[in-house]
Amino acid sequence: RLTMDPFNSAQDVHRCDLCETAIVHSYCDFCHVNLCMSCIGKHITDGYDKHKIVPFQERRSTLIYPKCGTHPHKTCELQCKNCNDSFVCSSCTASEQHMGHIFVDVSTVYKAKKDNIEKDTEEIVKTISPTYEEIASDLENQLANLDGGYEKITTAMSKQGEQWHREIDIVVNKMKTEISEIKVKHRDLLQKHLDEIKQIQALIKQTLLAIEEIKKSTEVSPTIEYSSKIREFSKLPPKIEVSLPTFIPKPTDHEKLYSLFGQITPFISTATKNKVLSLNKPNTSPRELLDEPELLVTIQTGYEKLCNVTCQNEDRIWASGNMNNIKCFNFKGSLLQTIQTISGIFPSDITVDYDEYLLYSDWSTWTVYKVKNGKTEELIRLQGWKPINLCIASNGDLLVTMFSDDGTQSKVVRYSGSTEKQTIQFDDEGKPLYSGNGKIKYISENRNHDICVADCGAGAVVVVNQDRKLRWRYTGHPSVTKNKPFKPFGITTDSQSRILTSDSDNHCIHFLHQNGQFLRYIDNCDLGDPFGLCVDNNDNLFVCELYKGNVKKIKYLK
Hints:
Elements: E1 2-4, E2 12-14, E3 26-28, E4 33-35, H1 40-43, E5 53-55, E6 78-80, E7 86-88, H2 90-93, E8 103-105, H3 106-144, H4 146-162, H5 168-216, H6 220-225, H7 230-234, E9 239-243, E10 247-249, H8 257-261, E11 262-264, E12 268-272, E13 289-300, E14 306-311, E15 316-321, E16 325-330, E17 335-340, E18 349-352, E19 358-362, E20 367-372, E21 375-381, E22 385-392, E23 398-404, E24 410-416, E25 419-424, E26 441-445, E27 451-455, E28 460-464, E29 470-474, E30 488-493, E31 499-503, E32 508-512, E33 518-522, E34 530-535, E35 540-545, E36 550-557
């Protein structure tokens, strides 16, 4: 209770919560109650042991440990690392159940969590929340200026219409209707993104309120159970910049009134690149296939055998082959950087994470490495399994194909950082999804979150959903000219959720629908032994030519 001291009205004075008159002297750190000297005895009459009386200046300094479920009269001041960080008391540590286990002080974990909460609070308040405010403000400004922009367009249409005969009025009204419909879609798009931002802002405020409650509380369980949302909130949505359509007048021609009166271009929605690359997604609007794919660029890498390629950003790729290094090129073919592998052996595969750091797998050391700021560090080290091929999932997880040391088993493992989250190895009947051998198995996650593996040993593309359920297998397409057995090597997916996989022996790329139907071949551009594949954010295809050592950039969509 906080009251005004009649003898010193310039400052507030804390009062006893029991008698509400005397000035506070002590504090019960268990019940969170202010106490004067006279009321302490009254407060602890129901059992002294459960109360914790401390000087008022030291309030909220005592940790409230959870009660032990096995020994109710004891509190749990330790966590057992061998039992999923379960709370244990001193009696539990001496029990047979926890014999030989590793224990840590709850107070240590509690302090670390409190520190993380403080950091999260600062990150949300200083960075994340203001950024969302800026995005919301920008969208609101676009909405506010929407009517004025569209009014200018309709005015231009009216002026053009006045120069025509009265029969042109029909065309004018029809076009105004079109622009109004576009305006509705334009507004809906902006409002949709604004609503999404507002929803996230509400979650941020809700999180801040929850954090404040935890910060004020000394209860251990909520603090220990606290899960940071910084990673979730840090994945900023693309900044939406929707340009107005344009009206392009044309000369008068009575026979072609509608076509010559003008042209309305649809509004163009562009998303600027943000720091969190997982949200910098390619354009997903429908795009038609070119009648004949076009070769845009050929990059000579210098590898005698070129296996892997991955895009780092809009103008750089990494490539690797049968040498103990990994090379970075720009799209003009200039060598920008060379990274030496730790083991001195060629890397099994390469990929780039959302922070644009290079990752590579090395089967000879059972390890996946990350190259960060020019330094190579160990990310994942396996035991009994050799990592082969890699891809980054849409949520930032790392997917790794691997085979057992004896070469009899294969599986896919999902990692968050260095932590294993999911294993994909068997179907619902307990049968292996992938061939049991030491052959490469390139992997890619589709836009619908399907996990696609090119299993060359089985002669099949194997696709499972995110719940590890087998969706379909593709074993090739009958062809008179493609007469060698289908052995898929590289695999990638585009913005339309379609799948591309390289058929090296038949010198072509198979282009598949997300449900497994064959759509077409890409077999021109003088492709020779296509191997590793990747697609950039503009749906340009990059193809490794195994024995030529070239990376070819191919345009296949209009």
